[in-house]
Write a structure and sequence with these properties.
Low-confidence stretches: none
Number of domains: 1
Largest sheet: none
Helix content: over 70%
Oligomer: single chain
Number of strands: 0
Mean pLDDT: 87
């Protein structure tokens, strides 16, 4: 179950960071700042959870699943047209 949570968090994190980059490119300061904040909270929250709550073996698999989620988030964010 925890791996699914990290996978979903990775998708959400990269989707949010991609939106952040889009808003930066469009010079939408408030939205870029909001999405930058959300990206940081998600990323550090996941890493904190991996480093403090999981043993050494599960942490490695959690990091890999999180990275796969991030890659999936990039794919989804690149395909979805939001605010264009």
């Amino acid at each position: 179950m925890y791996l699914l949570i990290f996978f979903i968090a990775g998708i959400i994190q990269d989707f949010v960071v991609t939106l952040n980059w889009r808003y930066i490119a469009k010079e939408k300061v408030a939205l870029a700042s909001l999405f930058s904040f959300l990206t940081t909270v998600i990323t550090l929250g996941v890493l904190y959870s991996i480093l403090t709550k999981l043993d050494e073996t599960r942490s490695i698999s959690a990091i890999m699943i999180y990275a796969i989620g991030v890659a999936t988030g990039t794919l989804i964010a690149m395909k979805v047209k939001i605010g264009e």
